[in-house]
Amino acid sequence: MNPIRNLEIEKLTLNIGAGKSQERLEKGVKLLRMLTGIDPVKTITKKRIPGWNLRPGLPVGCMITLRNGKLVSELISTFLKGKENLLEQLNFDNEGNVSFGIHEYIDIPTVKYSPEIGIMGFQICISLKRKGYRIKYRKEKRKKIPARQRITRGEAIKFMQDKFGVKIKEEE
Questions:
Q1: Closest CA to 60 of 39, 40, 47, 43
Q2: Nearest Cα to 119, choosing from 25, 26, 29, 27?
Q3: Per-residue DSSP letter, 151
Q4: Per-residue pLDDT for 172 more than 80?
Q5: Is 84 exposed, middle or buried (0-12, 13-18, 19+ CB in 10 A)?
Q6: How confident is the model at residue 57 (pLDDT cuts 50, 70, 90)?
Q7: Cα 29 to Cα 40: distance, rounded to the nearest angstrom
Q8: 57 within 8 A of 8, measured Cβ to Cβ
Q9: How close are the terminal C-alpha atoms of the chain, in Å?
Q10: Strand runs (DSSP E) across the chain, as ranges?
Q11: What's the whole-model pTM score?
Q12: At residue 85, does pLDDT exceed 80?
């Protein structure tokens, strides 16, 4: 098989949306720090939405983006154990991304309950790529990824099954 066709993990993103509640936001920051050992970044609103009482500059969530390395693969396999290695077709998009949520962090087998955090969930997004995706991001002569080089939903599912032993839930 052509080595350019091999898939790899581009990044892992962990996200917690807290809304206006600053107390929930601080708990989310503690949770992400506890899971990864890295300080998360707070996400800030850019728009004013009067119906939700949001204004520009208000922190509404926190996130961590991890790239490359052994830690990313270990975290993904740990989070998948919290979902019992079972994902649905809807968790995969047509661009090679996998996204799923953990409803309660205590579902993850290696994580213990912390009373100062309480019960909280978070979202996990995994972006996949192939060699040659750099042309999409480089500074000069930036180009689109050709159709033959894009990752399909089926390829992403096969990668997750082979690398992490994921089972796909059959739709009813």
A1: 43
A2: 27
A3: P
A4: no
A5: exposed
A6: confident
A7: 6
A8: no
A9: 35
A10: 7-17, 41-44, 59-67, 86-88, 97-102, 122-130, 167-169
A11: 0.89
A12: yes
Sign of CA dihedral 155, 5, 144, 135: positive
What is the maximal distance between C-alpha atoms in the chain?
55
In one letter, which amino acid is 69? G
Query: What angle do the packed helices 22-36 and 69-82 form, to 10 degrees?
Result: 120
Task: Write the pLDDT tens digit of every residue in 88-123.
Answer: 999 999 988 999 999 999 989 888 998 999 899 999
Residues 60-83: tens digit of each pLDDT: 899 999 998 888 999 999 999 999
The fold of the 9-164 domain, in CATH, is: 50s Ribosomal Protein L5; Chain: A, (3.30.1440)
